[in-house]
Amino acid sequence: MIASAPGKIILFGEHSVVYGRHALVSAINLRCRVEAKKSREFRIISPLGVTSLDFKTHPYLSFAVKRFCELKKIDGVELIVKSEIPIASGLGSSSAVTVATLKALSEEFDFHMSNEEIFEIAKKVELDVQGRGSGIDPFISTFGGSWIFPERRRVDISFDFFVIRLWERSTKLMVEKVAKLREKNFEIVESIFDAIDAIALKAPESGIEDFEELIHINQSLLRAIGVSSAEIDEMISKLEKAGFKAKLTGAGGGGCIFGIYRGKRPEGSFIVKPEREGVRIEDS
Ligand code: MEV
């Protein structure tokens, strides 16, 4: 059985969403496909290598299988992963592979979980690997579309986005870094989160110019909580000089930056579009 799930772009609200604030997120038109085949052993084949269950090389896949086995005992499975989503880049490759794996397992082994059940297990997998998380990534990979999270309000995002890929980084480490800063400067960081919350809520009602202004403000606040860097700031100001507004998306520290695509895109960028469909079964 083959299942696929989309990646995502957090438009506003990364990090503050971990502490209960709102975020605006869209699924994107890049997908991860996972094929599950009954087998007598556990085998994972992906661009990261060929392994058995392996919590170092394939943490999300391995925890997804482990969590599935708690619900339905299986003796083995072969999982083949093909993904269009760049790894460790803030575009949701980890949750897309988790959600697609759970859907493929669920159908291959006649367990037929609902999307709500898939989301609940994918959230546990995220916590297994990262220790902390809002659930926004598994949510959007499961359900697709554009949403104000966590209140699950569907919104219409009519822009396409340019994305520039920086370098790989660990979501877990970036989330821990923000947690430490918050512990040390509780009131200050909480007020930054409140400001980001207001941005996420205002954005869906904003036209293109105002949306870009919010991109600029949110990026400054991400910088304030320590998830940007001198190199990233410099890149963003160069883009601003060339007429683009851009911000980090996802955990930061690298990953990707994005802005609204207005018919002209910066050198080295690619275009992503909001995607309506979440996890689905694919024809083999
Ligand atoms: C990661 O894509 C988004 C973060 O806000 C973490 C989370 O919400 O779980 C950094």
Quickly describe the structure.
With 284 residues, the protein is an alpha+beta fold. The protein is built from eight helices and twelve strands.
List keywords for this structure.
binds (R)-mevalonate; 284 residues; 24% strand; Ribosomal Protein S5, domain 2; alpha+beta; four-stranded antiparallel sheet
Give helix and strand order, one letter per element, not per position: EEEEHEHHHEEEHHHHEEEE
Number of helices: 8
How helix-rich are the residues, as a percent range? Answer: 25-40%
Q: List the bound ligands.
A: (R)-mevalonate
Structural class: alpha+beta
For the biggest sheet, the summary is:
8 strands, mixed
The level 1 CATH classification is: Alpha Beta
- In CATH terms, what is the architecture? 2-Layer Sandwich
Q: What can you see in these coordinates?
A:
It is a single chain. By secondary structure, this protein is α+β, with helices and mostly antiparallel strands. The chain has a single domain (1-284), classed as Ribosomal Protein S5, domain 2, CATH 3.30.230.10. It is 40% helix and 24% strand. Strand 6 and strand 7 form a beta hairpin. Helix 5 (171-184) crosses helix 6 (186-202). The longest helix has 17 residues, at 186-202. It is globular and about 55 Å long. The site of (R)-mevalonate has 14 residues, from helix 4 and helix 5. Residues 10, 14-15, 17-18, 90, 133-134, 136-137, 171, 175, 250-251 line the site of (R)-mevalonate (MEV).
